[in-house]
Amino acid sequence: MGVKKVGAKPQTLVEKIFFLDFIKGLKTTIKHLWKKVITVDFPYEVVTPPPRFRGVHGLRTVDGTENPEFDSWVKRLKIKPPEPGETRCIACKFCQAACPVPELFDIQSEKLDVPEDHPHYGLKVMTVFNMDLSKCTFCGLCTQACPTDCIIMTDIYDLSSYTRRNWVLDKDMLTQIANEFASRRRDEKFDQHSQWREDQKLWPEYDKTREKLWDFNMPKLGPNYHDQTA
Amino acid sequence: MSWISVEKAKRLEERFGYPKVSQDKSGVVSVEVPKDKFIEFLKFLKEDKEYDFRMFLDLTIIDHGEKEDPRFQGVVILFSPTYQYRIIVKTWALDETLPTLTNLWKGAKWAEREAWDMFGIKFEGHENLVRMLLWETYPYHPLRKDFPLEGIKDTYLPSLNETLRGDSLEGLFNYDRMHTAIPTMEDLEITQKKRMPVKTSQIVLNWGPLHPGTHGTIWFLFDLDGEYVKQCDIIIGQLHRGVEKLGENVNWQQFIPYTDRMDYIAAINENHAYVLAAEKLLGIEIPEKAKWIRTMMAELSRINSHLLWLGTYALDLGALTMFLYTFREREKIMDIIEGISGARFTINYFRIGGVFADLPYGALDAIEHIIKDLPERINDYETLLTRNRIWLSRNKDVCIITEEDVYDYGLTGAVARGSGVPYDIRKIDKYDAYGEVEFDIPVGETGDSYDRYLVRMEEMRQSIRIIQQCVAKLRKMSKNDPYFFQTPDEKKLKVTIDGRGMKLPAGEVYASSDNPRGELGFYIYNKKDGLKAHRMRIRSGAFYNLQVFTKAIIGRPIADAITLLSTIDPVVGETDR
Ligand code: SF4
Ligand code: SF4
Predict the structure, then answer these.
(1) Does the distance separating the beta carbons of B359 and A137 come in below 8 Å?
(2) Which of A14, A204, B9, B97 has the most C-beta neighbours closer than 10 Å?
(3) Per-residue pLDDT at A193 exceeds 60
(4) Do B173 and A94 touch (CB under 8 A)?
(5) How many CB atoms lie within 10 A of CB B269?
(6) In B354-369, which positions are buried (b, 16+ CB within 10 angstroms) versus exposed (e)?
(7) A99 ligand 2 Cβ < 6 A
(8) What's the CA dihedral at B462, B410, B425, B423 to 10 degrees?
């Protein structure tokens, strides 16, 4: 078993008399004196969060990128098949079941009020989807539970507000957030059921602000494993 | 696994007759003894050279439910430094009382107070059995099974409620008007008086609870004679959120975000200890790749935590620049963690069964980059501090913690190692990939603040060594290697990343990890297969380490309190849970 002893050596007389300890310390200080500023001037400058960032939630809409099981889930839960542009949520409440604070969700669905001969007779739609983000732990478990990749977490982190009411997001708000996020960062892709794309980068490389934090000496991102490709 | 062998434990059975030895599937060996023989038996375990359970790890209570008789069971976890194994000793707390252990181990003092606070178990012979986390006039014992999760809402507090343009908001948009009790000024005064019943001198100095030097919300009481401390007590609990209670009321994976919020500085290590315990109870072996990723992340988090410690410690002793330097490196580490897991602080990356996602493209390069850079930075810090005469005189021979104290108070982590005890769970339990990596345990010589400082500095270097080995190993793996446990049979054993429908079997387990703040252990007791734990005990390293503060400060000038607290380095989220 490797045990390494560390212990104090007393100051030598030479050190004491010539203030060697202070001089050495000053050397370090002077070395840093000529470095460039590395702080980011928030809010005038912002760092772009990485693709996996867990920020404010959003509800995605149907846009042709649904997973293969989507239709069978819709059928199984007797949901009206959504048109493109409508929400993907099938009101299965899996997100609520996976959440450590389930009471922050309020999800409801309703039967459509249509005559008996209508093709959508007896089918349901999701009508209420409220999330109280003041109770959220931003753990991401809901996104991993969603069978339709509907609920996602976006890169929005500044959700301060003057009233508690503004922390409760409804389905329109959540849909809007997801749509904006998708148009902003579509190619970096978001969480699909925890199956992340293999070339998904640690950080967006187009982000120049982050370089500052790294002393203008950023690591060059390459593959992790020998058989990984970008 | 470091538990006493069943054969050796059975010899206790032969010798005394009354102990009942049992071993769980998870490897835990426990001995049940009758209450009247409890102390005698523990004394034997402590003093007998053949068993030598000198070190106190934890004491807690299990509430078996209102309908059971007897209802409460005391659980003591001990460790033997000579043989490097643990044992659990149990006894029934008949009439809701137990004999005190404080005559054997002084460290049991706070644990007994906590047991009284949370379960209402009286400890006969305890010198001052007051509440630990709640205030003195609080009428309930919250960890009892008949206490509801949301508390008893008996206080009308409309002032917290919000009105918008005259109309009060309801439901999701607002709070209830009835709340659980909160302490008033009188309650706090009573609490303070009870904690230190006899004053020896003129001045009692209150330090905290909201002082920046206390690194959180700790309330210190110093009984001062001039500048010198004669008596000291600590009031904690201002950050108590009932994490243990939550652990008994949420599903298995759902508990991980709550562990993030205990030691928020090293959230990864908190997750680690919990998933280790749950995996052991589940009896699964996680994939190789997950092991190495977890080891690497845990060490990264240790460096992150030690950098914060160094920065604030130096800041408290007047070296402001240090804080800025360490936060620069910390920022980079947090950047990497954020890229990998999606969060900087409350990370929730580990899962029971592995991790929730593989490393993203470029993660290993970024980690290699930082560990190439770090040794030079650490040398920079050391040139500023280690030989500095002010630093030496503020730290050398200040507040010595002896080896005896380590065993008595159950001190772990850098505090134990600073006192010369090479106690390191990474070496003892060899969890995840720690059995396969090479590293040394740094130990101090005298146990003063300076040694604790040196030990932590060296620990950072050793962590870099471990990360290097992890990166090299991970480089050789394939992208297709699994990072999460794949169950052979979904019907028999279901392990899910999102935690829905996941059950853990009946049994008990104690597993721990070496946190930057000491040994963080989870004792899980499960009555039957279930979605939730019956008892979730968290053995907090910071809690026990903080306890020694009250002893080590005696006879020292008040200025040393800052040094001592910084070198013990507790995080209030973890002491209070
Ligand atoms: S992020 Fe976590 S806490 Fe927030 S809604 Fe999703 S599951 Fe619940
Ligand atoms: S899990 Fe997805 S589909 Fe189901 S209710 Fe939640 S958001 Fe809608």
Answers:
(1) no
(2) B9
(3) no
(4) no
(5) 28
(6) bbbbbbbbbbbbbbbb
(7) no
(8) 50
Residue B577: which of B247, B143, B242, B273 has the closest Cα? B242
| Whole-angstrom distance, CA of residue B547 vs CA of residue B111 | 10
Residue B372 scores a pLDDT above 80: yes
B529 Cβ contact list (under 8 Å, min separation 6):
B503, B504, B505, B506
**Exposed (0-12), middle (13-18) or buried (19+): which is A36, by Cβ within 10 Å?**
exposed
pLDDT average, residue stretch A28-57: 84
Residues in chain B within 8 Å Cβ distance of A230: 361
* CA separation, residue A58 to residues A133, B266, B445 (Å): 12, 29, 56
Residue A24: list chain B partners with CB under 8 A. 383, 387
Summarize pLDDT for A142-155 with one digit per residue, the tens: 888 888 888 888 88
Closest CB from A28, A164, A202 relative to B366:
A202
Selected residues 38-77 of chain A with any CB under 8 Å from a CB in chain B: 38, 49-54
Task: Give, using CA atoms, the residue closest to atom 2 of ligand 2.
Answer: A146
- Burial degree of A116 (CB within 10 A; 0-12, 13-18, 19+): exposed
Residue B97 corresponds to which amino acid?
A: T
Kindly give the distance from the C-alpha atom of residue A169 to the centroid of ligand 1, in angstroms, as a whole number: 13
- Can you tell me the distance from the alpha carbon of B362 to that of B245, in angstroms, rounded to the nearest whole number? 40
Q: What is the pLDDT of residues B170-192, one digit of tens each?
A: 666 667 778 888 888 888 888 88
Strand, coil or helix: B390: helix
The model's pLDDT over B26-38, given as tens digits with 9 standing for 90+, comes to: 788 888 888 888 8
The stretches of chain A forming alpha helices (DSSP H) are 13-17, 20-33, 70-76, 94-98, 141-145, 171-185, 209-213
